[in-house]
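User: For my dataset I need records formatted as: sequence, then structure tokens, nothing else. Please produce one.
Assistant:
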Amino acid sequence: MAKAVSNSSGFQLKPFTPEDDTNLRESLKRCSAATYESAAQFRKTGNTEHLPAVVLGIIERFVEPDLRAKLRDADDDLRIIEDLGIDSLTMMEIVILVEDVLQMSINNEELRHLRTVGDVKTFIECKVRGMPLPKPTKFLPIEQIASIMPIQPPFLFLGEASISANGANAKYKISGQEFFLQGHFKDNPVLPASIMLEALGQLGVLFLLEGQVGEAGKTVDPKMIFFTSCEGVRCHRVCRPGDVLSLSIKPKRLKLPLATFEGQIRVGQEKAAIAEEITLTFAYAEESAKPVETPILPAAAAAERVEKDGTQPKAVNA
């Protein structure tokens, strides 16, 4: 009998028999042909590059037809419940099919923190490779962002945001009421390229404040984050009122006192701007100064002080 072998990804490859192929086709009969092809290639080779197509294809099978176009845009920030309308019962159906197709086992408790399509893809790849599961993505509404950020409206250009160990994403809708649009340009409001770069920098600030940065137990001081430099900035699209900017940044280098990110902005599937490097300088918050303790005066010294200046010493640390 043929034995399972490990491939370069650490996945235990089992022989993919004609019977396995028949069962796979049956399991994926309501999915696209591309989903089957990717699943078959993964089962034969263990190449994890096929996993995203398998996961997206299975999710698409359970999504309402009018929402499937969102999945085809391959936006990892899509929320499973809010954007795709997948409830907990449907999620269990997806998990059962994934287990069957990829020949793996998933603990229900592990599903609790999966909020986005990107979470699901990362989770599946980690499970297949036998890698530690990443910390769940953190979602921040605008109210929470405003409470965290040192930058405040009307100069805050982040709406809802999500932060993971691998980077951060955010949305910002150009309302047309931004104060600078009154003069940029006359009768032709266009979002300045400098504001797009500012928005990416702000997302970097949010990542430093809410992401896992630096040594355990240390936090970044929000008053000590400043813009340092940017490289390789290019704009590809004019952005106007009504456009929704999708911002994303990924850390390239994080070493005190500098944090360097790569960033991009999209409007739908159109690339609006990219920055190969955005560098911020930061510092950790200093430990709270310990209260200075005034020593208790010995009784004799206290009595002598009363005799000299007529004042009664105050009790300290009584």
